[in-house]
């Protein structure tokens, strides 16, 4: 019996295999093509920080703009960011090497400005990044400038500052607030633990200083506040 020859089967075409190194090169080229450099910034860095333009700021950071150079007003980008409470921008600047301890032309550090403007989250961010500010010195400065508030006082006290210590002029913080006639600040200080019967280096109590306030109305309100919290004549 003659067998019918089995039809010849065509071989399937071989799949082309790329060498591992070739495949890696192709992937890298695709990655580079999809991750090109951002456009150069079109807005001045200081303007970008002032208006909160994070995209422009990231462009500056990519193109290596010097972020530790002051602007025309003597303020640094980090000073501007924290004084406005722009935490995301401040974090970007800090992560790219912004100096936490640089001072503006008035001698203020970024932490000083953050606290003076009531931007506690920005102050906490700066502290986490290792600022060298002295909490006690900052407390005296903020009280002298009359920019301390309840939150800034609590922040500085939590970092080791003391309320019942005389400053460089020999005057404790509460005495400074009373002499300035700042009732609101005096109340914040008392609430935070300032001693109402403490004497300064000249022997004055806060109540004695309150009675010397030129404006009779303010003097009366201040004296009443101090007596309310136990001040003695």
UniProtKB/TrEMBL annotation:
Record bears the keyword Signal: yes
ANK repeat residue numbers: 73-105, 106-132, 169-201
Assigned GO CC terms: cytosol
One GO-annotated biological process of the protein: cellular response to tumor necrosis factor
Cell membrane among keywords: no
Keywords linked to the UniProt accession: ANK repeat, Repeat, Signal
Signal peptide as annotated in the record: 1-32
SMART domains for this protein: ANK
InterPro entries, alphabetized: Ankyrin_rpt (IPR002110), Ankyrin_rpt-contain_sf (IPR036770), NF-kappa-B_inhibitor (IPR051070)
GO-annotated molecular function: NF-kappaB binding
Name of this chain's protein: Ankyrin repeat domain-containing protein
Organism, as annotated: Thiohalocapsa marina
